[in-house]
């Protein structure tokens, strides 16, 4: 399918949706602490989305080959990379958790994620989080009009691997708009100067996923939860970004969360 460029009115709608999604993510991150269950985070997500006047993009999302996703937030703990399903699990001191939310407002989706430490975590866990977050910053710097998707992937991979970690190569970011998942696919690896060119009107979700160990993944029997195949820690950060003629704009930025 071709890439769907957005006009200024559509991007303005997505900007409002992104602002709401950023508030949602901040509210969830503020609630994370030892003793909180992932189900409590899902309950809070549903309540907050209603207050914001939106609809969860994830709840009952059912791509080909998958059963409907049963929650409004993805909570991925420790070796879980993405799509962790909330449930009875209680967060403990020393865990790390990736919180991933997407919502619909005005008929458009926006998507964002943040990984954070719970209590006192190991030095390797703290460094993983820092490196993954910085890799997103470098990807955003590469998301300039006229650049190519390979520049984004190269920026992530080059930095992550220089720090001794691995990028997940079997998963990727994506275009976003009226549908949660649109073209193009936005990989976290690649060759600079290669791939489709970034054009004004493109809106993409950039989401580095980084493992302490090897990049290979496995999927749990629930059909959704993806984890590192070697059981090592994983982190995930994400923003929805619009490309303009003068540079990228982070639609999901929330200064209360991201600083």
Structural write-up:
The chain is an alpha+beta fold and 259 residues long. It has one domain (8-258): Creatinase/methionine aminopeptidase superfamily (Creatine Amidinohydrolase). It is 30% helix and 25% strand. It has helices at residues 8-31, 38-52, 123-142, 149-162, 255-258, and strands spanning 55-56, 74-77, 80-82, 96-105, 108-117, 166-167, 173-175, 182-186, 203-206, 209-211, 217-219, 226-228, 234-236, 239-244, 247-250. A five-stranded antiparallel β-sheet has the order 8-7-9-14-15. Strands 1, 2, 4 and 5 form a four-stranded antiparallel β-sheet that branches. A three-stranded antiparallel β-sheet has the order 3-12-11, with no helix packed on it. It is globular and about 45 Å long.
Number of structural domains: 1
The overall average pLDDT, rounded, is 97
Strands, total number? 15
Strand coverage percent? 25-35%
What is Rg?
A: 17 Å
Which structural category do the helix and sheet elements fall into?
A: alpha+beta
Number of helices: 5
Low-pLDDT windows of residues: none
Largest sheet geometry: 5 strands, antiparallel
Q: Termini, distance in Å? A: 36 Å
Looking at CATH, the homologous superfamily is: Creatinase/methionine aminopeptidase superfamily
Can you tell me the CATH class?
A: Alpha Beta
**What is the spatial order of strands in the main beta sheet?**
8-7-9-14-15
What descriptive keywords fit this protein?
259 residues; alpha+beta; Creatine Amidinohydrolase; five-stranded antiparallel β-sheet; four-stranded antiparallel β-sheet; 15 strands
């Amino acid at each position: 399918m071709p890439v769907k460029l957005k006009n200024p009115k559509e991007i303005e709608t997505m900007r409002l949706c992104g602002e709401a999604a950023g508030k949602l993510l901040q509210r969830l991150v503020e609630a994370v602490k030892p003793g909180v269950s992932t189900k409590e985070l899902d309950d809070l997500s549903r309540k907050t989305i209603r207050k914001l006047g939106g609809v969860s993009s994830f709840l009952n999302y059912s791509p080909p080959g998958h059963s409907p996703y049963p929650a409004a937030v993805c909570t991925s703990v420790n070796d879980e990379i993405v799509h962790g399903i909330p449930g009875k699990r209680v967060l403990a001191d020393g865990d790390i958790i990736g919180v991933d939310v997407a919502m619909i407002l005005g008929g458009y989706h926006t998507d964002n994620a943040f990984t954070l430490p719970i209590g006192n975590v190991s030095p390797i866990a703290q460094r993983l989080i820092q490196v993954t977050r910085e890799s997103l910053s470098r990807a955003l710097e590469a998301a300039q009009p006229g650049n190519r998707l390979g520049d984004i992937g190269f920026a992530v991979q080059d930095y992550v691997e220089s720090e001794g970690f691995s990028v997940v190569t079997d998963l990727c970011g994506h275009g976003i708009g009226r549908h949660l998942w649109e073209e193009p696919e936005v990989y976290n690896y690649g060759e600079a100067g290669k791939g489709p060119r970034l054009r004004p009107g493109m809106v993409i979700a950039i989401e580095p996923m980084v493992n302490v160990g090897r990049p290979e993944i496995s999927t749990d029997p629930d059909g959704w939860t993806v984890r590192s195949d070697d059981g090592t820690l994983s982190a995930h950060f994400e923003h929805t970004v619009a490309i303009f003629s003068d540079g990228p704009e982070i639609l999901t930025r929330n200064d209360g969360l991201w600083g």
